[in-house]
Amino acid sequence: MDDQTTQNQDDQNNSGAASGSSSVKKRALEALLPLLDNLDESPDRKFEILMTAVRSATDDESVLEKALEAALSIEEPAAKAEALLDIINEASFRDENR
Q1: Residue 6 vs residues 14, 15, 16, 89: alpha-carbon distances, Å
Q2: Total domains, the chain
Q3: CB of 64 closer than 8 Å to CB of 54
């Protein structure tokens, strides 16, 4: 087997793994989002969970909206400001990459 054949097989294997990972992320997100409404977590923690979902697994704008709602309910001013900046940065990133 030559180097090119080996590289092509590696590329195919990596491509399949990436698509499998995407499927797993999508399924996990579909299971996670309904749970968030019923979790007894602090607004800070809900925000962290939602932003992780926003950044890694979804283009769904409603998840970013939920993250904004969580950010707005954070009581500590510095943490709230940081969360709101994260929302602004994520929204700007999405706008630039459309």
Answers
A1: 12, 14, 15, 41
A2: 1
A3: yes
Domain range for 51 is 3-96
Tell me the pTM.
Answer: 0.71
DSSP 39: -
Q: Which of these, 92, 14, 26, lies nearest to 56 by C-alpha position?
A: 26
- Asked if 54 contacts 63 with a C-beta cutoff of 8 angstroms, the reply is yes
Centroid of chain to Cα 27: 13
CA 10/CA 30 separation, integer angstroms: 30
Q: Could you read off the pLDDT of 43-52 as tens digits, one per residue?
A: 999 999 999 9
- List pLDDT tens digits, range 48-84: 999 998 888 677 788 899 999 999 999 999 999 999 9
Count CB-CB contacts under 10 A for residue 65.
13
Task: Extract long-range pairs of 55-62: CB within 8 Å, 24+ residues apart.
Answer: 55/90, 56/25, 57/25, 57/26, 57/28, 57/29, 58/29, 59/94
